Amino acid sequence: MKPVENFDAAKLARSLLRRRREGALATLMADSGDPYCSLVNLASQPDGAPILLISRLALHTQNILADPRVSLMLDERGPKDPLQGARIMVAGTATEDVGGERAALLQRRYVAAHPMAEGFLKFKDFSVFAIAIRRVHLVAGFGRIIDLAPEAVLTDLTGAEALVAAEADICAHMNEDHRETMALYATRLLGARSTRAKRWRCSGCDPDGLDLQSGATTLRLDFPRRVKTPAALRQMLKKLSDQARAV
Q1: For 160-246, CATH number?
Q2: Does 3.40.50.300 match the CATH number of domain 9-152?
Q3: Using the 8-state DSSP alphabet, how is residue 155 labeled?
């Protein structure tokens, strides 16, 4: 099968990891080893790897605690035939994070993607699981089937520690003071239809881009170059704001 020219597989895979908020989770049955598939909501870690918030009462969680090997399929939903859209399979291991700064970060990012899930954090049977990706398989149409190395789709956070630490404050500032600007990003740079500024909010940021969300719609604003500090991020967002206003 001849590859399609000018196809950026890694970019599409990164976009799916950042934008999709639900997926099919495959685990192995603890008692028999048989495959088990379930529907889960998800968010992304700062590097783009998936986060799950799941209950120990659920069968898939019991399976993970017995054998952490998992796979997750995310797809590009649309009104047409589902098989015409892009989909990605990531395989790896799921690790439970309980307490500490890392668990708090994962919880915050998950709730930013799923605000209605905040109440689940109060239940003792719920906890966050981080998936460490070992394999990536992308299917995006004829001539667009490819295996990718994890490092090709995950964001390199080296040197961006200050940006990761400031993410919560950055998102809060964007949501409090820059709703109109985010609407411009969404409508003029990313092709969204809604022009109501109050609908769009920032659910995350990282060296490679900004995550925007309006209800069930998620968009990814990719940066033309990496940023590693809050100051560099501000400059990038100002540049993109000027670009959006000029459209």
Answers
A1: 3.20.180.10
A2: no
A3: P
